[in-house]
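[job 0412] stage=complex_fold ligand=S-adenosylmethionine status=START
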Amino acid sequence: MRRFVVICPEATASDDFLLDDLPGTSGRLDVGLRCMRAALLFSHGIRRDVVVYVVLGGGPRAPRVVRVSGAAARFVRPDERSLALLAKKVLASRVDTAAGGFVDVRPGVALASGGLEQVIADLGGATAYVLEESAPDIRDVADLESRDVAFFLGDHLGFDDATRAHLGAMGVSAVGVGPVSVHAEDAVAIVSNELDRRDARRHTPR
Ligand SMILES: C[S@@+](CC[C@H](N)C(=O)[O-])C[C@H]1O[C@@H](n2cnc3c(N)ncnc32)[C@H](O)[C@@H]1O
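[job 0412] stage=complex_fold status=DONE, emitting structure tokens
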């Protein structure tokens, strides 16, 4: 199982944004949604072994987390407007998340009240990594493909101090995807490609 956790400290946790101006009205929820697309979708298909968490830290309803599981999600479309509409409906739903944990809003899509701690409680035994510029190259990490893995990444602003402290206290290892600071969704695509290549090698008879 591959998991991606996108931390968006300013992205709105409510449905109070405009589909016609997503970047300008949502605290850059668009960054989280593009990461969602990169993690979950390949050309004409959805990755059934991927779970994406978008941690929303902006606005009066924050913090909340949207979780999408490829195993159960249906009709996830690749264009940003459709993903924004999905986020709007999920964030507007009246599901009761007060008891804690994730509550299903529609197949494969769940919502939780809370922030990073909700995600960490949901990761099970996954080995966690934080994607950081200048960290050791993911290509040199052994056995990634045979593990249940979770990757944390920042939005356009990178990680804030609280997130860095939280992940640091967990002892999460940092990995990099190359010498250039790329857009968050591109970092997701590079990690996915690395894991795809390793999986293909594992399943190719010698
Ligand atoms: C656009 S970057 C953040 C840039 C931000 N200005 C900063 O200085 O942190 C968004 C996220 O993508 C990931 N990322 C970008 N380039 C990376 C790289 N070369 N290696 C690993 N992660 C990377 C990191 O998680 C980063 O927080």
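The chain has one domain: 2-203.
[job 0412] exit 0
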